[in-house]
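Figure-free illustration: sequence to structure, shown twice.
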Amino acid sequence: MRDAVTIGEGGRPLVRGGSVYGLIAAVGAVLWLVSVRWPAEMPAVGPYAFQPPIYAAVALALLWYLRGLSRLGREAPPLWRRAAFVAGLALLWIATQTGFEYLAQRMFFLNRVQHVGLHHVGPVLLGLSMAGPVILAGGPAWLRALAATVAARRVMAVVQRPGVATVLFVGTFWFWLIPSVHFTAMLDPWLYQLMNWTMAVDGILFWAMVLDTRPRGRAGSGGSSGARSGARVSFGLRAVLSVAVMFPQILLGALITFARGDLFPYYAYCGRYFPGIDAVTDQQIGGIVIWIPPAMMSVVGLLVVLGNMRRAEGQVQGAGQD
C-alpha cells in the first residue's frame, strides 16, 4: 500500500499500487484518440497536438509528488511551496498541451509568451517549490537509484556550473530566435518539440540552482562519492547569476522590438491568427514580452536569493548561540 495516492497525510487512498500507472496510460490513450480522431471535440484544456512525452512527464511528476507528500508527512514542504509546484506544472501544461499552443504557432508574440512561460515563469515557480526531494521520495526505487549514480551527479555538476548554466540559459533562448533557425524549427515537428523541451528543461535546471534554499555545501572526496551537504553555488554568486541573465534578455528584446523589417516570416507564411496585427507590430509586442517579464523574473529571483541567504545566516547564528 506504500504506492497509494492519498488525499493528504492520513487520508484515504485514491488509487492503490501500480494501478495508478494503468489509469495514467488510459487517460493518455483517450487524449491521443480524441486529438487524432475528433480534434474539434477536444476541450480547450486538452492538447491541441497530443505529445506522449510531455503528458508522461507532467502526469508522473504530479503522481510522484503526491506520493512524496504522503510519505514525508510532517517533513513535507509548506502549503505555499506545494501551490507553487502545482502552478508551475500547470503552466508548463497550458503552454504546450492546450489550445494555446495553436495560437503560439500562429502569432510571434504569443510564441514568446509560450517560451517565457516555459523558460522563466514556470521554472521559477518549480524552483520555489523545492520539489526535487519530494518527487524522489515519492518516485520508484529506480528513480532514486538513477539520481544517486555517479554519472547523474557528474552531469548535474557540469550543467549547474555557474558559467555553463548561464551560457545554456541565455544561449538556448537566443539560439531558437535566430531567424533561419526559428523558421525551420516552427516547420519541423521534431525540432519544434526539441525547442520547447530545451526551453523548459534548461529553465528548470537554472532556476532550481539559483533558488535553492541551502547554503553552499562541500562535494564528496574527488567528486565521486556524490555526498553534498548543501547547494553547489554560494548565495552571492546565485544573486549575481539571477541579475546577469537579465541583460542579454533585455538586449534581445530591444533588438526585436526596434527591428523595422519582418525577422520571422514563418508567421506570415502560415497565416497570422490575428490578421489585423502586422508583422512589425507582432514583433514589437513579442520583443516587449522578451524584454520585461524575464527581467521581472530576475528581480524576483534576486529577492528570493537574498531572503534565502538571510534565513541561512540566521540559522547559523542560532546554532552558534546554542
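We now fold a second protein in the same way, so the two outputs can be compared directly.
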Amino acid sequence: MSNTILRVGSVTFVFALWWGFSILNQHMKFFPPAMIPSPPEVIEAGWGIRDKVPSDVLISLIRVFEGFVIAAVLGIFLGCLSGTSRVAENLIDPVLEILRPIPPLAFLPIFIIWFGLGELSKVLMIAFASFFIIYVNTYQGVRYADPLLMRAARSLGAKKRASFFTIGLPSAMPEIFTGLRLGAGMAFFVLVAAELLAADNGMGFRIQEARWQFRVDRMFFGAALIGVVGFVLLGALRRLEIRLLAWKPSRDEAR
C-alpha cells in the first residue's frame, strides 16, 4: 500500500508542479502563455479531437505490436543462438556490433526510400530499433547462465539441448524480459519519429498536425497520450513477467 501511495504521490507532485508553473507563467510571462498550457487546457484540447483519438491509438498500437513481435522473435532466437554457439556468435555478433551503435533514426530515410511511405517502412523501422536491445539482453542472459548448474546437468546425462531448455533458457528469462520491456519502450520512441515524418494518422502524426497548427496544447495532449498508453502496456508486460517468473525471488522478499 505504501508503494502505491509513493507512486501516486510522485505523479501527483509532478502534475501539481506543472500546473503551478503554468499559472505562474500566465502572470509573470516567462514564456508566452500559449507555450506552457495548463493541465485543464491540455485536457480541453484533447476533448476537441476526441473523435480521432481511438483510431489514432489503435493504428499506432498495431504498428508497435507488429514491429515489436518481429523484433522479439528475431532478437530472442538470434540471442539464444549466439549465447549457446561460439560459431554462431562469431558469425552474428560482429555484424550486429557494427550496426548497433548507429542511431536507428539514421536509417529512417533509407527505410522510407526502400519500402515507401506505407505501413511496411514504419513496422520494419520499429522492429529494427527494438531488435538490438532484445538481442543483447537475451545473449547476455543465455551466455552467462549459471555454469555450475549447466555442468551438473551435463554430468547427470542431460543432452546439450535439454540442459539449455531446462536450465539455460529459464535462468535467462529475467534478462530476456528486461530486453523486452526496454525494446517496447524503444518501439514507442521510433513509432513517434516514424509517424512524425511519414504518416497521415496515428498518435505521432497528431502531434505533427498540432505543430502545423501551432496548437501547443494539443502537442502536450499527444505526448501525454503516448505516455499513458506506453505506461499501460509496459505495466502489462511487467505483470506478465512477474507471473511467469514467480519462481524468481525478488528484492522485496529478501527484506
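Summary for the second example: The chain has two domains: 1-29, 52-248.
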